[in-house]
Fold this protein.
Amino acid sequence: MAGGLLGAALSLLGCDSRRIEKLEEGVSTEADVRKTFGEPEAVWDSSAGRVFEYNRQPAGQKNYMITIGPDGKMAALRQVLTPANFAKVQPGMGAEDLRKMLGKPASRTPYPLKNELEWEWRWVQPPNSPMVFTAVFDSSQLRVLRSGSSPDRSTEAP
């Protein structure tokens, strides 16, 4: 199972690298992005333009956000599962805001007896350490209670 996930993740990485090379900020259009990456997982408006989410969870360890500026050109292409973004996650942050910042999580696990909901994202800490970022929400308010990263034990051999 872990070997299959690793193979899928590596194939996504190779495909994404080739896709990214085809696009250029300030030059590529929305049509170029859709042709290269396909249909986004989600689309929403931001102050910088429309943001397209390209999710690589649960098999991959990256999530991409591509911003299309008001001029119809790609303004930014970012891999968002980074320590800098994780540091922005604070208690009280809403689930929708977190989704827009990090993309769809790899898993969502409810803990009804604790009134909590846990979201996890798989990511890689340089140089090559598989990690899991976890955000725990109050399940009634969907506000972050706590968050943090730990080694991804699912990638270890049994």
